[in-house]
Amino acid sequence: MIQDIEDRDLKKDGELDLSSKKTSTSRKILSTVVLGAITLALLGAKFLPTAVFSGCKPSSNQEIDTQMILEDLCPTAEKLIPEESTQFAGITQFGTPEYKNHSLSVWRDAVRLYTPSFDDLGPVGEDSRWDVFFKFEDYLMKTFPLMAKKSELVHVNTHGLVFILHGKNETLKPMMLTAHQDVVPVPDDTVPRWKHSPFGGYFDGKFLWGRGSSDCRNNLIGIMEAAEALLSEGFKPERSLIIGFGFDEECSGEQGAAHINEYLLKRFGEDSIEFLIDEGGLGIQDLYGSRFSLPATGEKGYVDIVISLVTNGGHSSVPPDHTSIGIISDLIQTIETKRYPLRISENNPFYFQLKCEAKSGRTMDPLLRDSIAHLDSSCSAKTRVLETLDDDINVRYLASTSQAVDIIDGGLKINALPENVTVKINHRVAYDSSTDEVKAKILSKVSAIAEKYKLAVRDFAGKEISGFRHSKISEILPSGYFELHSEQELGPAPITKTLNNKSWNILSGTIRHVFEDFVSYPDADPAVPSDVTVSPSVMTGNTDTKHYWALTKNLYRFTPIRQNARFNAHAIDERVELNAHIDSVAFYYDLLRNVDENDRQN
User: Fold this and answer.
1) What are phi and psi of 327, to 5 degrees?
2) What mean pLDDT comes out for the span 21-38?
3) CA dist., res. 540 & res. 536, Å (int)
4) In CATH, what class is 91-297+493-601?
5) Residue 342, beta-bridge partner list
6) Which of 114, 127, 178, 294 could form a disulfide with 282 if both were Cys (CB 3.0 to 4.6 A apart)?
7) CA triplet 495, 498, 503: central angle to 5 degrees?
């Protein structure tokens, strides 16, 4: 069942007129959800739609217990605490001043190694800008000598690093942890705006500053620290551990993760990995007076739409009423005026996040809680929930496709009419949608503008679908045509199921243990209980996991960190708390121990 918010000209029974809505407390309830989750999306022009909800049943006086409904869809994870052992020092070792100093040194020196990836990089081996990764590999091998000695290291496409720590039981599927070695570039003109050098690894007593400190040296070094600590204690896993580090995630991963995937598929086969954990998710955060962990069990799709307008040009002293730039501007306004519909269904991990927040959020408005519980069976409940989502940009794009006009190019000289104008629109495709829906919308809008200005259109297949190129009124309108292309089409990722899933139970149980029993929350509201509700969530952006779909049915995107302990990934003054980095080391350490204990017991 899918519920939509769409444009409609008429109101009918069951429709919600948002044009006359007033902001209410319940509609603001979700304002703090997933802060920073949609930094990849650009808000288009606001429209005032009429909402239509299809397939819902009329409200009834059903006496179904709200909490029972929510518990079924968001069962409480059992906390997993590794057994006490004389072999392992446990995660308390990471909280000592001695270890914190060691961890800071290791992490800081990694941040000082600047490894940017650029969109225009040439092939590996031909473009010398890739060579920075040789130095980073050398650093890892010297800093983590036990990993270098006891694991098999495979180089994939030169700079892709695959460490394989072989398990005692080769019949068990390996587990896999991933991160990426590259960071986003720091533009030269922004360096003076940093409080501390982006390349210096400055520590102010609380935060480590620098490019990549958050995205994602924290994960990569945390994984290596945890593995090194376990190996120093004689750890020999039942199940093999694969650690894979790509090197161009920030420019789509085609040279790194894509090649690593090909290698692993060839060596191990499809669905050969028990589970995979990459960066991502929404960390640990306090919402509705309760504490939540939000690993992403899915991520939205992706497509870039390229629209070109070709016209005759001419001298700007005798211009038409609308140059090609003016026409493109009209098109952009038309596209941005209508957003994509909001949809909620079990096909989207965000559906389960809503259920978990309603179940555990102590301060959630009771009416909103009941509405979330009954949104599958009550039109009024659906209306209330979708209206709440539509009000808040911080959650809207977890349930709808985003569109962002990011690049426009056209015109070469001030006294010459532009002959070629191009606009590029980035889309993050929602669950319950598709790249085909995006292309259909764009084609519809372009066709309408082409009709208005008597222009031709070449659709995504290269077929000309309107014939106004040779206009009889070319003296006031430029004759020409639109041409449409799509780039990097990718549908929404397969969803990892969480109910009755052993890997999810281990992940969520480990999260509860580490973030309830080890982690401190110095900036949190003391009224928030320590219990952590672990909920599925969805990523609005893409990670290297998009290349690993064939390797496993259990793909998780989770950076083990308090959301309020990291700032400004991809931006000026990127920084992360040292204590938060220590938390990540503890998480990976106990995750590996919990997996191993489960394997030995079963």
Assistant:
1) -65, -45
2) 39
3) 13
4) alpha beta
5) 5
6) 294
7) 105
> In the predicted model, what is the mean pLDDT of residues 210-239?
98
pLDDT at 55 over 50: no
Position 467 scores a pLDDT of 58
Is the pLDDT reported for residue 263 higher than 80? yes
User: What's the confidence (pLDDT) of residue 339?
Assistant: 93
CB within 8 Å of 419: residues ≥ 6 apart: 310, 311, 312, 313, 324
Contact call for residues 406 and 42 (beta carbons, < 8 A): yes
pLDDT of residue 23 exceeding 50: no
Q: What is the CA radius of gyration of the chain?
A: 26
Angle in degrees, 0-180, between the axes of helices 578-601 and 502-517, rounded to the nearest 10 = 140
The pLDDT of residue 25: 38
H, E, C per residue of 223-257:
HHHHHHHHHHCCCCCCCCEEEEEECCHHHCCCCCH
> Rounded mean pLDDT of 419-433?
97
Peptide bond into 216 cis (omega under 30): yes
- CB-based contacts of 375: which residues, under 8 Å, 6+ apart? 3, 344, 381, 382, 385
* Residue 182 annotated among the catalytic residues of the structure: yes
Say if residues 80 and 506 touch (Cβ distance below 8 Å).
Answer: yes
Contact 580, 521 (CB under 8 A): no
DSSP string spanning 506-549? HHHHHHHHHHHHT---TTS-TTS-S-EEE--EEESS--GGGG-T
- Entry pTM: 0.88
Mean pLDDT of 203-215: 98
Tokens for 259, please give them: 């090649």
> Around Cβ 47, how many Cβ atoms within 10 Å?
12
**Is 278 flagged in the annotation as binding?**
yes
Residue 475's pLDDT is 44
570 is in an annotated binding site: yes
Q: How high does pLDDT run on average in the chain?
A: 89
Structural class in CATH, domain 301-340+402-490:
alpha beta
Residue span(s) of the chain under CATH 3.30.70.360 come to 301-340+402-490
Catalytic pick from 248, 249, 391, 432?
Answer: 249
Q: Which of 4, 182, 583, 596 is catalytic?
A: 182
Distance CA 150, CA 501 (A): 31
Using CA atoms, how far apart are residues 165 and 151, in angstroms rounded to an integer?
A: 5
Question: Which residue carries 């990849």 as its tokens?
Answer: 40
User: What residue ranges of the chain are covered by domains with CATH 3.40.630.10?
Assistant: 91-297+493-601
